[in-house]
Design brief:
about 150 residues, alpha/beta, five-stranded mixed β-sheet, 5 strands
Length: about 150
């Protein structure tokens, strides 16, 4: 299935980045910004949710894919659904090679760790997979065509 095929080189990654809207968030945004700089993500497309990172990285010349920012406390399902549909179509047309979500995970009051989670292409852990012949109705292709976009959105 096209959404399971790994690219030879992930040269056009797309990141959906969650940052804070305001300052005083301590390590939440700081660690995220440091991660982006350290991993040289200037060539990646970044879609920001959260005002803080949007304004900073737009000013620094990063590729920002959204014209306006979605505020973190104003997220509604319809906006995320539209974004999911848009990036899946972009992925299907080979305009991007991967879709990733980048956010900060709370560990404790003083520690936040950055998590970069690849969403597409879907990776399967072959060590855990045990294949048995299964007859699908509808076909396996039709099932994957419906399930993989739902997984992303």
């Amino acid at each position: 299935h096209p959404m399971l095929q790994q690219p030879k080189i992930d040269d056009k990654p797309y990141y959906i980045v969650f940052s804070s809207d305001l300052g005083l968030a301590g390590g939440y945004s700081t660690n995220l910004f440091k991660y982006i700089h350290e991993n040289n993500m200037k060539q990646a497309q970044l879609h920001w949710i959260g005002k803080k990172g949007y304004t900073r990285f737009k000013a620094e010349g990063y590729k920002i894919s959204n014209e306006s920012v979605i505020l973190g406390d104003k997220i509604i399902y319809e906006d995320i659904h539209k974004l999911g549909v848009k990036v899946i179509e972009t992925f299907k047309h080979h305009e991007i090679t991967s879709i990733n979500v980048l956010y900060t995970n709370y560990v404790n009051a003083t520690t936040y760790e950055v998590v970069a989670q690849k969403v597409l292409p879907v990776t399967l852990d072959e060590r855990k997979m045990e294949f048995k012949e299964i007859i699908y109705n509808p076909s396996a292709q039709e099932i994957l065509d419906n399930l993989v976009p739902r997984y992303v959105i």
